[in-house]
Design the sequence.
């Protein structure tokens, strides 16, 4: 069964550094999403991406965040200057258009020290 | 905007006993409903989904859920749980085919031998 692949599985970075989280969505999917889950809390929506542009974003997705689909296969989330509170599990998801389910990757655990 | 309420943050249950995890959502004309399971230190795995049609939905691992429009509920059930069902369970909803999922806070199911 097709999977959404996320790399790395775990990343440790120093506060203030830039990080890029990578995702390879399922190849025939059209809609792409990033979510985060702070330890012990619920899964929160960050941003959705369709037709090479952001279609929706939450209040969490401020100027420190950006997304890109540079080559038609990868979907990346960049955090420009990480803060301690950015420590979380970040999930990528993709879906086909219409009434189909969302497929999630296994996540990247980001630890900011 | 949609919201999801999972009334029980923790549910302990003995092995082979039945379990129901409750989920209510805010009303909307049409909704798509999902249950995801998260095992410790892992990603989100789709258990089942309701998109349309029969209100009783069967998923993986013996779980099922019933969509009740009048009560705006989508409770998850299993007639006999196993130790391996110990995990966090998230209910999620979207308004239409492609809008971002909104998650509940999760219910921690602990199966006791």
Sequence:
């Amino acid at each position: 069964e097709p999977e959404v692949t996320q790399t790395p599985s775990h990343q440790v970075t120093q506060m203030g550094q830039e990080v890029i989280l990578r995702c390879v969505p399922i190849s025939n999917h059209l809609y792409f999403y990033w979510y985060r889950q702070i330890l012990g809390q619920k899964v929160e929506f960050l941003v959705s991406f369709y037709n090479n542009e952001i279609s929706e974003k939450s209040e969490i997705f401020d100027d420190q965040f950006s997304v890109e689909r540079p080559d038609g296969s990868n979907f990346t989330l960049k955090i420009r200057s990480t803060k301690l509170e950015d420590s979380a599990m970040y999930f990528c998801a993709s879906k086909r258009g219409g009434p189909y389910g969302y497929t999630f990757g296994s996540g990247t655990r980001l630890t900011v020290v | 905007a949609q919201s999801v309420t999972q009334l029980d943050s923790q549910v302990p249950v003995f092995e082979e006993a039945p379990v129901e995890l409750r989920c209510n959502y805010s009303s909307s004309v049409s909704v798509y409903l999902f249950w995801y399971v998260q095992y410790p230190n892992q990603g989100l795995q789709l258990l089942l989904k309701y998109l349309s049609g029969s209100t009783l939905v069967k998923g993986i691992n013996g779980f099922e859920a019933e969509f009740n429009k009048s009560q705006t509920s989508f409770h998850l059930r299993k007639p006999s749980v196993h130790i391996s069902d110990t995990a966090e369970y998230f209910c999620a909803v979207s308004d239409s085919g492609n809008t971002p999922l909104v998650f509940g806070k999760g219910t921690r199911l602990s199966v006791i031998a």
Remarks:
- The longest strand of chain B covers residues 87-94.
- The mean pLDDT of chain B is 92.
- Chain B touches chain A through 23 residues (CB under 8 Å).
- The CA atoms of residues 32 and 52 of chain B lie 8 Å apart.
